[in-house]
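Residues pack. Consider this:
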Amino acid sequence: MKSLHAQHHPLADSGYQLTVLTQADVEGAQLLPFAARLRETGLLPLRPTGIRVMQINVGKMCNQTCRHCHVDAGPDRTEIMTRATMQLCLNALAQTDIQVVDLTGGAPEMNPDFRWFVEQISALGRQIIVRCNLTIIVANPKYHDLPQFFGRHGVQVVSSLPHFSALRTDAQRGEGVFAKSIKALRLLNEAGYGVEGSGLLLDLVYNPSGAFLPGSQAALERDFKQRLLREHGIVFNNLLTITNLPISRFLDYLLESGNYASYMEKLVLAYNPAAAANVMCRSTLSIGWDGQLYDCDFNQQLDLPVEERAPQHIRDFNLAALNNRAIVVNQHCYGCTAGAGSSCGGATT
């Protein structure tokens, strides 16, 4: 499957996505603007509570083309962060006491300077999270030692596994992905990841395979742990549930399947003020592969940069100014505030 970008699909244009998202009347359903909902609950303008996580997208290149990918990543994407931009990120990080650096992609490991970047961040004494799709570990011999490399630098590995069954995982991520993911998880376990007492954290990410909200994070974690241990001998630390946001390929799925209106209405009706108060954009700064600054990874994919009064590029990083910005919101933000809430760290309430 090609990326929307490679297909020259209308939804590859972020402006077109925003046109779809900002329709107030969708098949008769009146969708209140998200900003208005925040105002009703006393949260507008939404502002940071203090940046604690620097999330860096090091490129859109990936060895997979997943059906619901909000980045529209794939083997045909060539956007890659340069070492020079990585150095700007390191310079900014060194000015602050931000403790967590979250590396994402695409498959971040495919960036040719990925290991150098991890080593430099580690030398600054910061906690590193890598969003690993698992299959990259077994995709090529040059990646086979990633579990050991991660372990040497105390990297927290966070990996998507849509389900504990091959059928549902492969339906979302591609044929054969489940088997490769299990093989990679075994290699991570052998390196100590997910093993009690090792100190090496291995978290899995669940996102629904269709137009519905995730169930209870605690209940799903229990089911995943039981099934993966019993059927495959796999152990891990935590399961994080993430709601599919209506952008990019998942938006394409919603429109093609006729589920867009009902899904948006579901998100709007499930708005939770407590989840809105805890959204990840209040504590995270997102950095694009080209160094542009965003409030979150989802805004990044919609080309919605931080507000104009704040620094726009990592070269102009100013922590005080960024901590005082108003966060840019749009209709897709309902996805992070529905039900128990959703963030890169899982449920927020």
Remarks:
- Strands lie at 25-26, 29-30, 53-57, 100-104, 127-131, 156-160, 202-206, 238-241, 284-287, 293-294.
- The chain has 15 helices and ten strands.
- Residues 306 and 328 are 6 Å apart (CA to CA).
- The chain has a mean pLDDT of 95.
